[in-house]
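Please, is this right?
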Amino acid sequence: MPLGPNDFAAILLTLELATLTTVLLLLIGTPIALWLARTESWLKRPIGAIVALPLVLPPTVIGFYLLISMGPNGFFGQLTQALGLGTLTFTFAGLLIGSVFYSLPFVVQPLQNAFEAMGRAPLEAAATLRAGPWDTFFSVMLPLARPGFLTAAILGFAHTVGEFGVVLMIGGNIPGKTQVASVQIYNHVETMEYVQAHWLAGGMVAFSFLVLLALYSSGRRGQKAWV
């Protein structure tokens, strides 16, 4: 196989980044999606628009502003420096933050649709049985929204794997630290190493196909949550 150590390191780093991003997205996106699905506040539309911004903004724009904000003169950069953490640009932690922001709508919107689809009847039934908020969520809402969670996890993971512009802007191209698979493909093309680029690119095509196959096979309700 014409793949070198840097290629395998990039693949492992990509899988690590996608896994951690998906976990964080589910933890962060679930309360946001639940609030958007249940609230009647006037803030629903502007917050929903903010969450959906990565769907329409070029990745380089998102990466640029994240780079500025996490840099030494940015708000978050000054905060992390005050906490003794240094700056997060060109680090794995910076990649993780950028990936969470960039893939947020791919998790929040399927979850929001799943919560909205279940209606209020199950929640009202749980309330009549004096179920607490946590019991209602884990015993009623979570099982009913399971297809939405599956869709959100698959899309969040796959979208992170395919990132390029955001990770390149924030993380640069440091082998073993911030060099993910999509950036490594770009490196191979730049140096005219098309065989290696074919192997990595072909692997991502196969991965994307399997992701979509899993998504369309996850059940009708899971499909309606996004696709």
Q: What stands out?
A: The chain has one domain: 5-220.
